Amino acid sequence: AKTQFLDAFMKVKENFQNVFRSLFTADDTCDLVLLDPENPLESDIDIIAKPKGKRPQTINQLSGGEKTLTAISLLFALYLLKPAPFCILDEVDAPLDDANIHKYNDIIKQFAKDSQFILVTHNKQTMSSVDSIYGVTMQEQGVSKVVPVNFSSLN
Amino acid sequence: AKTQFLDAFMKVKENFQNVFRSLFTADDTCDLVLLDPENPLESDIDIIAKPKGKRPQTINQLSGGEKTLTAISLLFALYLLKPAPFCILDEVDAPLDDANIHKYNDIIKQFAKDSQFILVTHNKQTMSSVDSIYGVTMQEQGVSKVVPVNFSSLN
Amino acid sequence: MRLVSLEIKGFKSFAEKTTINFNDSVTGVVGPNGSGKSNVVDAIRWVLGEQKTTVLRSEKMENVIFNGTKNRKASALAEVYLTFENNKNLLPTEYHTVTISRHYYRNGESEYKLNNVTCRLKDITGLFLDTGISSDSYAIIELGMVNDILNDKDNSRRKLFEQSA
Amino acid sequence: MRLVSLEIKGFKSFAEKTTINFNDSVTGVVGPNGSGKSNVVDAIRWVLGEQKTTVLRSEKMENVIFNGTKNRKASALAEVYLTFENNKNLLPTEYHTVTISRHYYRNGESEYKLNNVTCRLKDITGLFLDTGISSDSYAIIELGMVNDILNDKDNSRRKLFEQSA
Ligand SMILES: Nc1ncnc2c1ncn2[C@@H]1O[C@H](COP(=O)(O)OP(=O)(O)OP(=O)(O)O)[C@@H](O)[C@H]1O
Ligand SMILES: Nc1ncnc2c1ncn2[C@@H]1O[C@H](COP(=O)(O)OP(=O)(O)OP(=O)(O)O)[C@@H](O)[C@H]1O
Ligand SMILES: [Mg+2]
Ligand SMILES: [Mg+2]
Fold first, then answer.
1. What is the mean pLDDT of each successive set of 10 residues along chain A, which is 155 residues long?
2. A121 and C19: CB-CB below 8 Å?
3. Is A17 helix (H, G, I), strand (E, B) or coil?
């Protein structure tokens, strides 16, 4: 079990570094560290993330958007280890600026060759990037209804 | 002290109901309840919010955006009791849809007759509603710089 | 395995039977605050067996049943159906199309079905074992989860790793 | 009382002296993720006396000093100046313009000044008593605070009431 975990951990670490570099830039670095390497099945896991030449002492020093992208990189790193047939993201793009929303949607398009993605969003850029849209409305007070939407009609 | 607190509590409750109704609609109801009215200085405070004919059992059942608007209504209710000379809102509009961002910005314009407001935002609607904008950039890696911005140049 | 469709009736704000078809690689779900988008996500977690009422933003399981408005009375039962196509034979079943469903009555009675045959929750979780699909899957992501990873709240990073490794 | 300007030097990502003037009723602050917008908000909390390093997203106070990049070495000191116009005579002082400032050196030395005269933190908090301005004011709002109110984490609702009542 210990070897199996360490094996998976190394793969996730590598995925994390790859995804992180596509969401940030190719020169950015990040790492996943087992705080107690002698005891991998119990050990806490530390996340190190250094975007764009910055030297944050901990990820807590990063900005709201940088933290979100870092967490997304880790979640996608785990996903790549064992891709689930579908992946749902509920308003995860809310803290991101325009340039990062573009990168977020691009990497999702990559992964969507192997899995289905469902993106709940308020963001116009994300809406223009998906293949199809369902609109949820409450025309009758308190009662939800779903209709397929043509994006051009949303503008 | 007990009377002073109850006095303030009643005013905040009333403010809360007024602000809530401008951020939601005039038919919506909300309330602030002292769970232990015999002991107002120690009591927990419950928030009841019922937007648009819904009957949520607790505020936890509300949506992300509805919760944010409810919390903003309470914060503004406290603010109205003793208006601070300035008020800073850091990306509080992120969970809101277009219609709610409009209401949020309208109520801020009302309060801004008496106080200065600083809105940190990624939202285009908010940007077009403020009086002036400062742009923060990192042209040199890791070093922040601030420049006044003309909104029309942001589009 | 491919998602085909989701059907919701009597669950949270979906008083009427509602169907969403998943034909594409990337589907967007949009709408005003409070319209029901996250309720759709909750419905998927719920039909996959979510038992934690906090994750479902409810005090008790009964609160997931449509609780009525001034013009409509509350529902007696909540039902969600999720249909998959077993196109890569990932699911250990000979069926080409698999529909899992969950039904919850106001009196507390609860039922799970697999292609309309009553079964137990463990039959459903057994079916999806090793596919990465479960109610607490790392594949259902919202901002609260992003925060938990960043704070490592309740050892959430460890738990995520154990799920996928 | 009216905010006039904020000057930041050596604080967090503001290696160079940076000035923001507050001429209008509603000022927007915009820019890419990680550019320094929330650092501006942190600077205002800090000059008002914030001591909790967690609120400042730092492990220790020393981490608020600009910590260098590959092209620039770290600063030795962080300084923030906040200038107010006492136009409604809300502040108990005869000065028409009041500038408060805070200075923190890497060796741990710390200083507060009022119109360039060294003072103690309590002179500054005493000045703003009853104006609603303090480092943990209900008037500095971000989404984490919105969540704390909704969860009533650490009795946050109670504390907010006590501040304003
Ligand atoms: N059992 C129930 N019966 C009826 N309505 C319910 C029930 N449970 C929740 N709701 C309602 O559903 C609404 C929440 O919907 P949901 O969280 O899906 O919104 P959303 O579209 O995700 O909005 P946002 O964009 O703000 O996140 C709430 O207003 C809540 O009152
Ligand atoms: N002491 C320091 N020295 C240098 N840089 C620092 C220091 N402390 C924090 N930073 C950097 O400041 C950046 C965070 O800036 P800030 O939180 O203000 O961003 P933001 O503009 O609010 O972004 P977002 O839109 O994502 O919220 C981080 O990248 C962090 O590395
Ligand atoms: Mg939602
Ligand atoms: Mg920020």
1. 88 96 94 89 90 84 96 94 91 97 97 95 97 96 93 60
2. no
3. helix
